[in-house]
Amino acid sequence: MSAAEIHPNDSHKPPILPTSRNAHSSSSLGDPIGDHSLGLSTSNGKPSPAPPPKTLKRTSKVSFSSTSFPERGWDDDTPTNGNVLDFRTELPVSRRLTHTEKHITQSLGVAYEGNWSFCKVFADGSSMASGYIHIKPGGRKSSKTVKDNTYIFHVVEGAVNVKIHDTAYIIAQGGSFMVPRGNIYFIENICERTAKLMFVQAREITAGEQDDPLRLVRGQSPPKLFPALPKSKLFVLLGWVIERLLKRFVKYRKVALAWYLRSAMKVGRYVQGPKAYIAFFVLGFLFRSLGPSRSLLPRVNVQVIRD
């Protein structure tokens, strides 16, 4: 058909331009998938409905690095120590209050048994402590008893297989587990990266036990050995008795010294020769036992002289 033979009623209709989709469908008419996708008529004359669009699966995976996160570096200038009030003295002391991620890496020591590293972060006397444990891939922390302590672990990264008493559990990143006091636990890294765990250790302070007996926390007052004895009546009475005994001992020591001098003069006047040596030796033993020595037994010095 030429351009002059175009019907006048069709002049308002835009010309249909062939597209790549139409060209593809016209070249593959025998393909039923192409007919359904274009909405062509079937044998009964009714147009077939177009199928819903297919959902495409993403083939690219988003990878997150275990060492990078959006907030990395925000706490580079955060101080580790701060002033707080001491629990017993109620005086301001300097304590470690924060521990950032970069400090954890610097604080980790040499790997124990070549498998895991440990660093202690916080401590509050002898009642509570916390820190981090890093276990290499395939590494394991051998069995350990917690005695009178209770441990709580939180898996920061990775996955571990932990055995508490006689039951094993698999804990992945974000999970936690507890080891009650009096039990044995064992941790094994089952992932292909370093397993990072944070732990909190707590114990109950028994009656009469002082907080932080080794004074590991600076600023804490030294503990008293017997805090309740100086205030008791029994201690005051015992001190008075000991004081009287010491005064009597000094008095009796003077009497014994005078008796020793008189006895020595008598022995020297009437006893001579070997008997005098034996007598002075015995008197010396008796007198030295009353001296300021810590032991009541006399001290004997024996010298052997060979020709």
From TrEMBL:
Function, in words: Component of the kinetochore, a multiprotein complex that assembles on centromeric DNA and attaches chromosomes to spindle microtubules, mediating chromosome segregation and sister chromatid segregation during meiosis and mitosis. Component of the inner kinetochore constitutive centromere-associated network (CCAN), which serves as a structural platform for outer kinetochore assembly.
GO CC, any one term: nucleus
Gene Ontology molecular function, alphabetical: centromeric DNA binding
Biased composition annotated in UniProt, kind: Polar residues: 19-29
Coiled coil: none
Superkingdom of source: Eukaryota
Domain Mif2/CENP-C cupin: 118-201
Gene3D superfamilies: Jelly Rolls (2.60.120.10)
Keywords, ordered alphabetically: DNA-binding, Nucleus
Record-stated family: Belongs to the CENP-C/MIF2 family.
Region span, Disordered: 1-85
Entry keyword DNA-binding: yes
Name of the molecule in the record: CENP-C homolog
An annotated GO BP: spindle attachment to meiosis I kinetochore
InterPro entries: CENP-C/Mif2/cnp3 (IPR028386), Mif2/CENP-C_cupin (IPR025974), RmlC-like_jellyroll (IPR014710), RmlC_Cupin_sf (IPR011051)
Subcellular localization: Nucleus
Coarse class of the protein's main subcellular location: nucleus
